[in-house]
Amino acid sequence: MKLQYQLNIAFTALLLIIMGVTGFVIYSLILDLLIQDEQRQLEQKGEILVNVLNETYGTRSDIQQFNDFLQEQDLQLFLYDRKQNAVLFSTMSDQVVHGFFLNNDFSNTNEELWEFGNDKFVTSRILFYPENLGLELILLTPLRDIQVVQHNFIQRMLIVFLIGSVVTVLLSYVLTNKLVTPLSRLKRQLKKIEKRKFDEVEPIKATGEIKEVAQSVYDMANELQRYINTQQTFFQNASHELKTPLMTIQGYAEGIKEHIFDKADEEKGLEVMVNEVNRLKKIINEMILLAKLESEQSVYNPDIVDAKALITQVADRVRPLVNEKELQMTYNVDSRMELVVDEEKMLRALLNLSINAVRHATSQVRITGSNAMKQIVIEDDGEGISEELMPHIFHRFVKGKNGETGLGLAIARAIIEQSGGKIFVGKSELGGAKFTIQLNAQNGNK
């Protein structure tokens, strides 16, 4: 069953349940309210009659005059004598009075409903003053008259409920249609993603959470398209990077096998083959590391690391290369700065960035760590990175001038992102490249 029909059925069922419960409660309460209202009206009428009778006829000897006055009232009532437990007068026939007297306890002042035949009557009792007279006026109203009012009210309520139900169902249909239509369109876009037609995926018009989901789907399609393009580029670059040393190795191996080279050339060829094998080994190892970093969370074990001690290790390891190129290397890290990272892998990332800076520097390399800014900056005074290359510098096999495998910066980015950080590249005030690592640093008192 379609979602729209399910929602409509759910709304309708909920409406019927609410209306049923509401109707039952109202039906149960309305009769009690009508009875209470009728008793108040009877009480008001009775008090008026009693006041008139008290003012006009003051003693029990005026019973006949009582009777004449009450007979003129268009009411169902009894004039009851408590002392004698007898009805002195009634506007109803003697047979009816006798039936009421047999079926009901006139002396029980707590009984509000009396019975006569198959009918019930609402009663209201008013005492005459002074109370020592022992006279009481009892007024009655047939319950069926009140039930007629109740039924009329319920009928009108049912009409209102019916109109409200129709309006609610129509409104439910409109709202669910508005809700489900974007989902149907979103389903068609997902089908395009399933068939890898990423270029055909289009944003859909929606509101609220559905809009957020639709935007996420659209972004996912773009990211998948980018990922597939990146993978294709990766395989093309990887095949090229692996093919070149393999062809060199194959050429020298076949030449040596066929004894084409003399002794000196064979020695040179073997040396080239060893170098190319080492290069292949390095490329493959870096590719495996990069794949693990991007796919296996278990290879990354974060801990609290002293940033200054970590940068000191980096400086010590690149110092031979710095001395070889006769460069000046300075580093300044806040002693309070701590990082939540995998120390070994972050050391690898910083080494890759530092060696890259040393390789391209002209005279100096600078590393700074700011606890306030929560970042580490590595920069040099070399030729820098071209504007065209900057957006792609962290992609696999993208090499700048004098680059080696083209995987060092990609590995550094993967490690930093695994640490919950970001890396940015720009131009340094020194004139060369500037790599900024934004990490989740912690303050500590060292």
Automatic annotation (TrEMBL):
Residues annotated as domain HAMP: 177-229
Transmembrane portions of the chain: 12-35, 157-175
Reaction(s) catalysed by this chain's protein: ATP + protein L-histidine = ADP + protein N-phospho-L-histidine
Alphabetical UniProt keywords: ATP-binding, Cell membrane, Kinase, Membrane, Nucleotide-binding, Phosphoprotein, Transferase, Transmembrane, Transmembrane helix, Two-component regulatory system
InterPro entries in the cross-refs: HAMP_dom, HATPase_C_sf, HATPase_dom, His_kinase_dom, HisK_dim/P_dom, HisK_dim/P_sf, HssS/ArlS-like, Sig_transdc_His_kin-like_C
Any one GO molecular function term: ATP binding
Cross-referenced Pfam families: HATPase_c, HisKA
Class in the EC hierarchy, top level: transferase
Keyword rRNA processing: no
SUPFAM superfamilies found in the cross-reference section: ATPase domain of HSP90 chaperone/DNA topoisomerase II/histidine kinase (SSF55874), Homodimeric domain of signal transducing histidine kinase (SSF47384)
Subcellular location(s) per record: Cell membrane
Highest taxon listed in the record's lineage: Bacteria
Domain (Histidine kinase) ranges: 237-443
Name of the featured protein: histidine kinase
